[in-house]
Amino acid sequence: MKGIVLAGGSGTRLYPITKAVSKQLLPIYDKPLVYYPLSVLMLAGIREVLIISTPQDIGGFEKLLGDGSDLGMELSYAVQEHPDGLAEAFVIGRDFIGDDNVALVLGDNMFHGQDLTATLVSARRKVEQKGGAVVFGYPVADARAFGVVEFDEAGHVIGIEEKPEAPKSNFAVPGLYFYDNRVCDIAAAVEPSARGEKEITAVNSAYLETGDLRVELMGRGMAWLDTGTPEGLLKAAEYVEAVQSRQGFYIACLEEIAYRRGFIDVAHLMALGEGLKKTAYGRYLMSIAREGGAQ
């Protein structure tokens, strides 16, 4: 399975912060925001990732992440000329996806929780073994700003509605999706909505119509954080700081994840840490490497 991080958009809700820089390059406590969605794909075991951004911002991501070799990954880059909808990621990324299945994560979505890795690996396996699509339902107090899952009395999914005025459940669909290879043809056939965008809800509805959509519910122990507003940025940073300071473990440390997922070995991790040894981040990498047996 391959992965896509969609890191486009203009970030107008964060103006003037984002007038000169992509919101996905803004810091969430001690790391750029894009580290968090990229870490989700890595936790799912995905090593080939396409990052899609705007013409003016794509160079910043290339400078930050390079070709991925330091992480034992293969990173590619593509441009979305205009914000024409989330589903356009599969049109832009069609050659990259090739004959593979694909996971899409939005570049401003953050996930954290004890069962996150198991949840991601399970979703990937279901698509690889059974085909179809897996998306998630996350309980929110006010679902009107999201795609919302509708269930029948038996708990079966019967619909997904985009930003309804009267939501039929409190389960929002976060920006994380796993699809089989059919998604490329489905996305290409999606007609633009009234907003002029290829909506991801239309893709999910197409899978639902054929009985091939699974919705996995995320429980109370899972955090899904919004970073689209100044308040959201602040709260996300405070969350990361609190967890890291209390537990001593870093959230979305790409180098640590690469090591623990077997993408790189302990010597490589130590070398990465030594290159940053004047920083707390580098010393953390070195401590993880020492635990793994490096001298």
Automatic annotation (TrEMBL):
<dbReference type="Pfam" id="PF00483">
    <property type="entry name" value="NTP_transferase"/>
</dbReference>
<dbReference type="GO" id="GO:0008879">
    <property type="term" value="F:glucose-1-phosphate thymidylyltransferase activity"/>
</dbReference>
<dbReference type="InterPro" id="IPR029044">
    <property type="entry name" value="Nucleotide-diphossugar_trans"/>
</dbReference>
<feature type="domain" description="Nucleotidyl transferase">
    <location>
        <begin position="2"/>
        <end position="241"/>
    </location>
</feature>
<protein>
    <recommendedName>
        <fullName>Glucose-1-phosphate thymidylyltransferase</fullName>
        <ecNumber>2.7.7.24</ecNumber>
    </recommendedName>
</protein>
<keyword id="KW-0479">Metal-binding</keyword>
<dbReference type="GO" id="GO:0000271">
    <property type="term" value="P:polysaccharide biosynthetic process"/>
</dbReference>
<comment type="similarity">
    <text>Belongs to the glucose-1-phosphate thymidylyltransferase family.</text>
</comment>
<dbReference type="InterPro" id="IPR005907">
    <property type="entry name" value="G1P_thy_trans_s"/>
</dbReference>
<keyword id="KW-0460">Magnesium</keyword>
<dbReference type="GO" id="GO:0046872">
    <property type="term" value="F:metal ion binding"/>
</dbReference>
<keyword id="KW-0548">Nucleotidyltransferase</keyword>
<dbReference type="GO" id="GO:0019318">
    <property type="term" value="P:hexose metabolic process"/>
</dbReference>
<keyword id="KW-0808">Transferase</keyword>
<comment type="function">
    <text>Catalyzes the formation of dTDP-glucose, from dTTP and glucose 1-phosphate, as well as its pyrophosphorolysis.</text>
</comment>
<dbReference type="InterPro" id="IPR005835">
    <property type="entry name" value="NTP_transferase_dom"/>
</dbReference>
